[in-house]
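To: structure subgroup
Subject: Chain for Friday's discussion

All,

I'm putting the inputs and outputs inline so they're searchable in the archive.
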Amino acid sequence: MPAYRPLNLGRPADDVRTYGGTVAGMIAGAVHAYGTAEDPDA
């Protein structure tokens, strides 16, 4: 997947499969930065 890809491409039914990993990684990065979890990647 390219570094930049607009989140409004494709069908809504495919969003979790298409962007799930990206969104989860962004959330884990924020959790790690704020230190609000022992293991942010879990």
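Points worth raising on Friday:
The radius of gyration is 12 Å.
The chain is about 50% helix and 0% strand.

D.
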